[in-house]
Amino acid sequence: MQRQKLLINGERLKNELERFANYGRTENNGVTRLSLSEEDRLVRDYFCSCCEELGMSIKVDDMGCIYATLEGVEDKPPILIGSHLDTVKKGGRFDGVLGVVAGLEIVRTLVENHIQPNIPITIVNFTNEEGARFEPSMMASGVLSGKFEKSVMLKKTDSDGIVFEEALHASGYAGERENRLKDAAAYLELHIEQGPILDKESLSIGIVECVVGMVCYEIEITGDSNHAGTTPMDMRRDALFAANNLITEARKRLGAIDSELVYTIGRVNVFPNIHTVIPNKVVFSLEARHKNQEIISLVENIIRELPQSSLTEGCAVKATKLWDRDTVWFEKEICNLLEQSAELFGYSHKRMVSGAGHDAQFVAGFIPSAMLFVPSINGKSHCEEELTAWEDCEKGVNVLLETVLTMLSK
User: Fold this and answer.
1) Which of 161, 201, 305, 400 has the smallest CB count inside 10 Å?
2) Burial letters for 83-102: b for 16+ Cβ neighbours within 10 Å, e otherwise?
């Protein structure tokens, strides 16, 4: 196929993103579209109608993932473009849906220019990426990649006790296992950054080299409860004081390792949590993320040394590893093509990593994959204030289109 130089229709992209946001739009211009909810069912219906109008064939797999395919000249594994349509509660208008609508706009551009691709192009909507209604996140792509057991996932329940399997069948999107994603030439996922880096550096495009590895521990500190007014300070085994000491020490030591290391204490439980009683137990989580496994190993060494610290106030300290994940590196050749496409248009860009998880990290286990970021204004995401400039959305889809055309021309 002769290589084409095309641009997408930015106004059409904007209008389509706003139409998708109508399915679950909140009073403050955000979106609540939980997985397999009525809003999710309706937006799926609308997505399928858009694809059918373009002459695409539609298949649905046993996890509810939708695959809309524009046939190619040759019956070969397709180029996949996509992301997810579900949101968190009171989320934004761009998270996930941008990657799906990007696929729609690319196919529309090809169709209106009478270009039939050499190989098929498939737009995919993965079910329950957010995990906001049914945990865990990235559920469907996790099943497809063999990371999660389907039988276990089907039994997951939401806060109202509704079982995932029941919700899937009620939505009308319980398809066939034989329709699962198995093979593809490449998977491309356009996503908002969900962080402040591109916006802070006034860049339009981020070429994502990897989803960083991470580790999560639970630290349990056990002391003694006693009366808060009658127990002398030198006779206490205060679990909360010990926790404060260890958190301060952990922050000091972790902060000295590497400037790109991020670490968070996101959950703290204090017992018995009564203002007149000395705390006898504190449990807190400590997670850290970095692209290099060597750095993660240093983090784990520091965490495991905390129980031996002299700062424990006489309390017992136990560090338990809850889970971890390795860094997932994306296909270098595709990353290079994305960068070349950004350079062709003169868009400002940089190579970067993703600290958040995405379907692409699971898909990368069996299909050559890559991700592209566009800026999140003020780094806001998973909230109604989430915003990406329409111009940057357009630039991101242009880069994706050019990359697809380059792939098709080879």
Assistant:
1) 161
2) bbbbbbebbbbbbbbbbbbb
